[in-house]
UniProtKB/TrEMBL annotation:
PROSITE patterns: FE2OG_OXY (PS51471)
Cofactor(s) it depends on: L-ascorbate
Listed GO MF terms: iron ion binding; L-ascorbic acid binding; procollagen-proline 4-dioxygenase activity
Family per record: Belongs to the P4HA family.
Pfam families given in the database record: 2OG-FeII_Oxy_3 (PF13640), P4Ha_N (PF08336), TPR_P4H (PF23558)
Keywords: Dioxygenase, Endoplasmic reticulum, Glycoprotein, Iron, Metal-binding, Oxidoreductase, Vitamin C
The protein's role, per its UniProt record: Catalyzes the post-translational formation of 4-hydroxyproline in -Xaa-Pro-Gly- sequences in collagens and other proteins.
Species this chain originates from: Anopheles arabiensis (Mosquito)
SUPFAM superfamilies in UniProt: TPR-like
Protein name per the record: procollagen-proline 4-dioxygenase
Highest taxon, organism lineage: Eukaryota
Subcellular location: Endoplasmic reticulum lumen
InterPro entries assigned to the protein according to its UniProt record, in alphabetical order: Oxoglu/Fe-dep_dioxygenase_dom, P4H_N, P4HA-like, Pro_4_hyd_alph, Pro_4_hyd_alph_FE2OG_OXY, TPR-like_helical_dom_sf, TPR_P4H
Amino acid sequence: MTPLGKMSSVWLTSVSVFLLLLLQQPPVDGELFTALADMEELLETEAVLITNLDNYVQAQEEKLMQLRQKMHEYRREHAEAARDVSAYLSNPVNAFLLTKRLTTDWRYVENLMTYEVGKEFLENVTAYRSVLKFPSDEDLNGAAVALMRLQDTYNLDTASLARGMLNGVQYSTELSAGDCFELGRQSYLNGDYYHTVLWMREAMDRLTGEVNRTATKEDVLEYLAFSTFKQGNIQTALSMTEELLELVPDHERAVSNKAYYVKELQKEAQQKILRGDDGSEEVPVDTTTKIQKEATPHVYDTNERKLYEQLCRGEQQPPIELRSQLVCRYTTNSSPFLRIGPLKLEEVYLRPYIVIYHDVMSDREIERIKQYARPRFRRATVQNYKTGELEFANYRISKSAWLKDAEDEMIRTISQRVEDMTGLTMETAEELQVVNYGIGGHYEPHFDFARREERNAFKSLGTGNRIATVLFYMSDVTQGGATVFPSLHLALWPRKGTAAFWFNLHASGRGDYATRHAACPVLTGTKWVSNKWIHERGQEFRRPCGLQLDHSAEEF
């Protein structure tokens, strides 16, 4: 048996049992950053790795302890022999022991010294990768992008965020200079030079206060200088590059970049002279004319973006004149079943008519739905407005699963409840979609209904357009995560057990563009929702067509 063999064999036996249990689990997929439900499993992975590392450290310490014992034993015997060499060697027992120490004993020491303690533990990590969830480089990039999104949406100061403070609340430990550097590097890889500069500057500030440095000034300067150049500030980029060259005079890229920056500054100086035909030093350049790109349903203008972010921060709300007309009431929606247990309805907007139903999903139902959804989670997709095909999009970060009524009595009960709430048939409704949002999870402004140019949308269903939406909130969210309607200046904040309802189409069948809405990024906490998209087919007598465009409270 090899040195430490007994301890290693016990450890490997426990690992084998553990791996056997893990292999019984279903296979895992990537894109962990798109759902916090998956991110939770990373803590399990980390716990296993910590245990593995702890056992590796113990094995190393045991190896060093045995070597230290041998060293003390050799030193003691050698010191005794050194006091009187002749007397020591004249003793046949000592002569035998000296010979033994330098043969069999020393071979044991050599074996102990050359024994690779870490090999078995590295093999364990390799085995774990096939059964545990490990984040990929895409997950790292997605998590970094999510932090940038949160920073922009909620106006988070870079220094405060680096201290682990979100909206004035201290949530986590501080980021090191190396952490800030990695955030800047990920932004750089995405071509996001604005955030690269922000985080590289923060990394530089934190470097000055670190005793055990987690990043180098040279690396920070290299990214910072080039990103500053890409933002159009050539002079500052040149200064930073010169500072880098003072630290590393033979830095190949810095030498090349410096020459380029000097050349560009000379060009700028020459252009300034040429602009002033009347002899003036500089003629102002027109920066007000902007060329607007071709619009798509998923691109919104600056004003909508501003409104969206303000609503996410809770800085906007409908005018008091409108809010003063809103009421809360019990309703049966002409349902015989609801007469014995009417629903609690809260009006939140009148035109279009948007309501919140309270206490319409129990904790037990929520947990059952989560239980069904977790194993089926896949990254949420959107429908390409030209081709009708489903595809991933950066403006929707979440994972979703679809549950059929036939799978469980509880799911059928929820569908029936939606029918009672809305007065619409569920025969042509889509399956219950369950969604869990990831790090900074969001869904930017969009329509639930298909516009006229989206000729292929829902074609395969054969049930017409999405006439209405019911959105169940299955969790409270600590900060962020609101559902906002930018054109209405309206924000709906998640409250566990409630459900929002609105019509996507006017009674005429035309889309109501005021229902364009978005899911704000989750700042802290986790957000679970589920929704039923209700289609036109089968609603002919439940919601008759009309020529009046606006739907209102009279329809309920």
